[in-house]
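From: lab user (bench 3)
To: helpdesk
Subject: output format question, protein + adenosine-5'-diphosphate

Hello, I'm new to running complex predictions and I'm not sure whether the block I got back is the full result or only part of it. Here's what I submitted:
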Amino acid sequence: MIFNSIRWRLQAWHGVILAAVLTGFGVAAYKVAHDNQMRSIDQDLGQQLDGLFRPRPPEARPPDDRPPRGDRGRPFPFESSEFETNLRQAVSEFGAAGGPYLVLWRMNQGAIARSPGAPPEVPEPKEALAQAPPEVGPGQRGFRPGPRGPVLARTRGQFREISIPLPRGFVVVAGRSIADDQAAMQRLALLLLAAGAGIFLLGLAGGGWVAARAIRPIEDISATAQRISAGDLSQRIDVADTESELGRLAGVLNATFARLEASFTQQARFTADASHELRTPVTVILTQTQTCLARERGSAEYKETLQACQRAAQRMRRLTESLLELARIDAGEEPMRRERFDLGRVARESAELIQPLAEQRKVLIQTDLALAECAGDAEHIGQVVTNLLSNAIHYNRESGAVNVAARTEGEWGILRVSDSGSGIAAEDQPHIFERFYRADKSRARAEGRTGLGLAICKAIVDAHGGSIELESKPGVGSTFTVRLPLAHG
Ligand code: ADP
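Helpdesk reply: Thanks, we reran it on our side. This is the complete output you should expect:
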């Protein structure tokens, strides 16, 4: 499902958050603008009343301004005994039709005066009437001229009205049409809506772009992984931005894919090499037996054939045993003991074991063995030393020499096997520990060498947490150095 994808989920969350923020912002902006507008209308209406009840000094008025009633030499209406008459007159003469209007109410008497522009259906300002000071007149305690008490505002359809409680139970309602203001507010709402929708779409598009960019490396990774799972191990993720989190992940995955490829290639080559190695002795046995059985033979010929078959079978046994041993070490199934043993003693025993072969080849084995107490499996390390000595003798020259030395160096037990043999060419040296690798292929195979000896040595030494290295000069000789961890305490 497309909507299950991370990209769409990101997009949906982004959309929801953006819509919520824009709606909140839009509603708040509209409310602030609306409240400001109403407040300014209310102030405007309040000023109209101020002008009505509080006369300004003549010099502050423009010459064409009609003086309010209280200014025409008469006392301010509230202070006069003709309080009600003056108030009624001021209200009935206020403004003109279509403009701001006034309606005068008195407690229990209803609307007692209205200006010419006042609409007929202005409802009773109950709340203001309830707050209008009772019969407090001029000269009495608590009397203050002018509008008093809280200004109560209301919006009634197209009209905005404020009610002002006056002394003696009077309430003046001042109002005006706000049709134009409402239309302006509507335009503002539409503008906010359009701007919000625009920003929302822009935000969605931007968010979609960002999400697509952020997700692209994941898509690349999954596409590459799919191609790899389909069998193409050479595929790698194209890492453009190596510093980002996904770039680093892609880097790690690429390294893993490279190791996987190397291991698969090695595995495939190993299987091919193993089959090839086993096919040779099998072919020998088949050819020998077929030729021999083609007709009657003498006992000497049968014996010769059987001996050839035996040699081929022995070769197969050596090979299968080596293969099995390698497979077991690889799988961690070859038990490696962790005991204290003297590397010097193990080297001496191996040298003694291999002595007959050395004599046969007229090679002199020299030893320089000090005490080096290592931790590990003495039997397997003995196998390593024997393999190295066997190679040193085998690849040596006539009447050559082999030197075996053991000693400690820091935290390590060191074993060195040097020979005065043919040496190993520089181009072969990096591959010498690979399985089935032979520097001189035809010769080594003809001599029945498996090409697994050094690979087994390396596997055993690695399993001990040690290392094996080669130094060789063609024509001068080779030195193999084995490092093993010393036993502690
Ligand atoms: P092999 O059974 O062929 O000896 P190894 O794994 O023991 O297999 O050795 C791999 C190859 O390394 C050999 O075929 C040989 O060419 C080369 N090699 C090993 N040891 C020596 C040595 N001491 N001197 C020269 N070449 C050597």
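A quick orientation on your result: The chain has three domains: 12-182, 233-334, 339-485. Let us know if anything else is unclear.
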